[in-house]
Design a protein that fits this description.
With 212 residues, the chain is of the alpha/beta class. The chain is built from eight helices and five strands. It has helices spanning 15-29, 45-51, 66-84, 91-100, 135-147, 155-159, 162-173, 191-199; strands spanning 2-6, 33-40, 127-130, 178-185, 202-204. Strands 3-2-4-1-5 form a five-stranded parallel beta sheet, sandwiched between helices. The longest helix is centred in the middle third of the chain and has 19 residues, at 66-84. It is globular and about 50 Å long. The protein starts with a strand and ends in an 8-residue tail after the last strand.
Length: 212
């Protein structure tokens, strides 16, 4: 099991795009490995890329065709459907559950996992997504406060391990198959970004030629 976090404290340097490319190409190259994308950004950019339907037709007109408009908006329908489930089938849904069970890992994390190939048939079936969610930003203060509880004395360490617990549970979910984790991060060094970095074994820092 290997986990890669893609992070830079500056936006617009290609973190989400690189996460998307790394995950899809690895999954396509190694079909015997489950590739999990964990979207820990409230903007859910990598989730949007993965859930975008592939049936968009080339269009040279200045205005988007009605057909392409409808296809693109199906993308947001999928995300809204995941958000609307109970529990939310997103990374925020998982973190909500951890707020109710802060010091006891959740054994069954299947409700928070979605297979993008169900929406985009051109994606490999071994590519799996824990979808991003705007609720991350709202939950961040509650997560931070939980990490600062005086009891147990290991509260900070245990809370910072929530995403690590998620990767461990997903690894068990994959059984005898290998598992790889791609964690897309928000530029902000918010508590949910700290959870991502604590879960990663490797850190990829994208940057542009101007050193940003």
């Amino acid at each position: 099991m290997t986990a890669y976090a893609f992070w830079n404290n500056k936006g617009g340097v290609g973190k989400s795009f690189l996460s998307f490319v790394a995950a899809t190409e690895y999954a396509r190259t190694y079909p015997d490995t489950d590739v999990y994308v964990i979207d820990l950004c409230p903007q859910a950019n990598v989730s949007e890329m993965l859930l975008l339907n592939s049936d968009i037709s080339p269009n040279t007109d200045d205005e988007m065709s009605d057909e392409n408009y409808n296809v693109i908006h199906k993308n947001y329908d999928v995300i809204n459907k995941l958000i609307g489930q109970t529990p939310r089938a997103t990374v925020a849904g998982y973190l909500e559950a951890r707020l109710n069970s802060p010091f006891e890992p959740i054994k069954d994390v299947s409700p928070y996992v979605y297979r993008p190939a169900d929406s985009n048939k051109k994606l490999p079936v071994n590519l799996l997504l824990v979808c991003g969610d705007y609720l991350l930003e709202i939950l961040s203060e509650a997560i931070r406060q939980t990490s600062q509880l005086a009891i147990p004395v290991t509260a900070w360490k245990q809370v910072l391990s929530w995403i690590k617990d998620l990767t461990n549970a997903l690894r068990k979910r994959s059984g005898n198959r290998d598992a790889l984790f791609i964690i897309d991060c928000n530029p902000s060094f918010a508590i949910y970004t700290q959870l991502a970095l604590a879960a990663a074994e490797n850190l990829v820092v994208p940057f542009t030629p101007d050193d940003s």
